[in-house]
Structures are given as structure tokens and as C-alpha cells.
């Protein structure tokens, strides 16, 4: 729909139609839909108004024709014209307030914003990561910098200890969400890609599994609303900290360095898990249990 610059489209199985709409008045991050079953609709109309032709607009041909006319009249040019007509400083302010998924949707929908993004990739992405990650940013940066590519091959005991000391100081900082400001463009892209392709899908899968286990009722599960920002932050934080533990002490480290130091289990408990409060350790343990059951 975005590529075709239309606000309207539909999906069909020949017996059912899902009509889709993206509002040009807002960011194209939400798709509205309506499910139509022409056979059932026609039968309902014929029963309600016998002897009339009111049912004709409920047929598959009638509904698709009406929807096609709407699509011909509408275009994403409306979206582009409204947003791109704003002064440049307001455009930049809009981009600075977006989360990662919203920024992605906007730059794919508007050629103007895509051009601006290409010219200001670092500043836009770092702002976007700050909005998206909030206090989790310090953990995301630590995961990036503890990766084998960034950390290097010399995985000594002293180097790990220095890293953990630095990580603890950053966690204690009053500006934990500001660490994305110091990223390079390449680092911002790597964090954004990891968050979008790894962390968010795993968070969704984890939450779905937890809710099914707790509620044990598919109807109640469907009625459960989206996570609050606080709940979402806790899940993201636990996932990043689990990944950080794997980066620092995981078995995969030996694949990258022949001189890595093997930490005893008790040292890992003291050095890493000892940094966190009991409820934070429980969050990490929940992710570990989820990973063992679903990913290993």
C-alpha cells in the first residue's frame, strides 16, 4: 500500500475480504481493517429487506467496486503534502519524537523524510533510540560493546572486570537514556537492527507465552491489552541483560577468541548477577527459562 501510494487495499480468500485502510492524517503506523463475508452479508440483507435490491451493494462485486473507487480517489500524496509542507524545524522535531517502528514507517512512506533520514541518519537514529529504549539504552549500548566484534579477541579476566565496572558506573548515572547520543552512525544502525529484528520479536513471543500460561484461556488472552510502557521496558531490559551475560560469559565466546577466560559459575553469580536487585535477577532468570524452553 505504501509502495503503491494508496490508502486503501484489500486481501481476499474469494469467500471473505479484509478491506484495509491507512489514514493519511496520521503516521502510517496503523492499518485499519474490516472483515466482509459477501455471501453472509447478502443473505442478511435479503432477509431484512425481502423483495428489494438492497442486497446488491453487499455482493463481492459491489463491495470491491466501491472500495476500488475510494482507492482511486485517495493517495498517500495527501500525507506527503501535509507533513512536508511544515517548516524544516518542525519536521525535525516530529522525527525526534518518534519510536523506532514509527520512524521506519514514516521514512518508507515519504520520499522527503527518507531523504532527510539519509542525510541525518546518525542524529535521527540516536534520538529515535533514546525515545524507544529510554532507561534500557545503557543495557543496549553495553550489549553492543561487549559483542565479539566490538570487544576484540583479548577476553581476559581483567578486561571483563573493567567492562563490568564501567557498566555499573553507567547504570548509576542520572542520564542513562542519554548514552545513545554518543553512538556513531554505524553503532546506532547496529543497535536499531538488533532491537527491531531480535529483541522486539523475542519480547512479543515471550509475552505471548507468559500470558497464555497465566491466563490459560484463549478468549481472555485475546482481550488482554498491549503492555504498558513500564511493562515493555522491563521485558526489554531483561532481554538485553540476558544477552549481555551471554556476551560476557557464554560458551559462544570461545568461538571468537582462543585466549578467552573461563569464569567459574560462582564468579558469574557474584560479578554479574550481584550487580542487580533481587527482582531484576528474577527478570533475567525468567528470560533464561524462556530461552531454554523455546530457543535452545
Could you characterize what this model shows?
With 296 residues, the protein is mainly α. The protein has 15 helices and three strands. It has a three-stranded antiparallel beta sheet, covered by helices on one side. A hairpin with a 4-residue loop joins strand 1 and strand 2. Helix 5 crosses helix 6, helix 11 crosses helix 13 and helix 13 packs across helix 15. It is elongated and about 85 Å long. The model has no long low-confidence stretch (mean pLDDT 79).
> How many DSSP H or I helices?
15
Assembly of the depicted chains: single chain
Q: In what order do the strands lie side by side in the largest sheet? A: 1-2-3
Mean pLDDT: 79
Outline the biggest β-sheet.
Answer: 3 strands, antiparallel
| Proportion of strand residues | 5-15%
Q: What best-fitting shape do the alpha-carbon axes yield?
A: elongated
**Gyration radius, to the nearest Å?**
25 Å
Into which percent range does the helicity of residues fall?
A: 55-70%
Number of strands: 3
Q: Distance between the terminal alpha carbons, to the nearest Å?
A: 38 Å
Supply the helix-strand structural class: mainly alpha
Helix and strand pattern: EEEHHHHHHHHHHHHHHH
User: Which stretches of 5+ consecutive residues score pLDDT under 50?
Assistant: none
Amino acid at each position: 500500500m505504501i509502495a503503491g501510494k494508496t490508502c486503501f487495499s484489500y486481501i481476499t480468500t474469494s469467500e471473505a475480504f479484509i478491506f484495509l485502510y491507512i489514514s493519511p492524517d496520521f503516521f502510517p503506523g496503523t492499518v485499519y481493517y474490516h472483515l466482509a463475508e459477501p455471501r453472509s452479508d447478502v443473505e442478511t440483507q435479503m432477509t431484512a429487506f425481502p423483495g428489494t435490491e438492497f442486497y446488491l451493494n453487499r455482493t463481492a462485486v459491489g463491495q470491491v467496486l466501491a472500495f476500488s473507487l475510494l482507492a482511486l480517489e485517495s493517495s498517500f500524496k495527501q500525507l506527503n503534502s501535509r507533513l512536508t509542507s511544515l517548516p524544516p524545524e518542525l519536521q525535525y522535531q516530529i522525527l525526534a519524537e518518534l519510536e523506532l517502528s514509527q520512524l521506519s514507517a514514516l521514512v518508507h512512506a515519504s520520499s522527503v523524510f527518507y531523504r532527510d533520514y539519509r542525510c541525518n541518519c546518525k542524529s535521527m537514529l540516536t534520538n529515535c533510540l533514546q525515545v524507544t529504549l529510554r532507561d534500557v539504552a545503557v543495557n543496549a549500548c553495553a550489549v553492543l560493546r561487549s559483542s565479539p566484534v566490538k570487544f576484540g579477541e583479548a577476553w581476559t579476566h581483567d578486561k571483563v572486570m573493567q567492562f563490568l565496572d564501567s557498566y555499573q558506573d553507567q547504570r548509576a548515572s542520572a542520564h542513562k537514556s542519554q548514552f545513545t547520543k554518543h553512538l556513531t552512525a554505524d553503532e546506532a544502525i547496529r543497535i536499531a537492527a538488533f532491537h527491531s529484528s531480535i529483541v522486539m520479536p523475542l519480547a512479543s513471543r515471550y509475552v505471548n507465552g507468559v500470558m497464555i500460561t497465566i491466563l490459560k484461556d484463549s478468549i481472555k488472552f485475546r482481550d488482554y491489552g498491549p503492555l504498558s510502557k513500564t511493562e515493555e521496558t522491563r521485558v526489554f531490559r531483561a532481554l538485553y541483560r540476558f544477552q549481555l551475560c551471554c556476551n560476557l560469559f557464554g560458551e559462544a565466546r570461545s568461538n571468537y577468541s582462543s585466549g578467552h577466560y573461563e569464569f567459574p559459575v560462582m564468579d558469574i553469580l557474584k560479578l554479574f548477577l550481584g550487580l542487580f536487585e533481587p527482582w531484576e535477577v528474577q527478570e533475567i532468570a525468567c528470560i533464561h527459562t524462556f530461552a531454554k524452553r523455546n530457543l535452545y
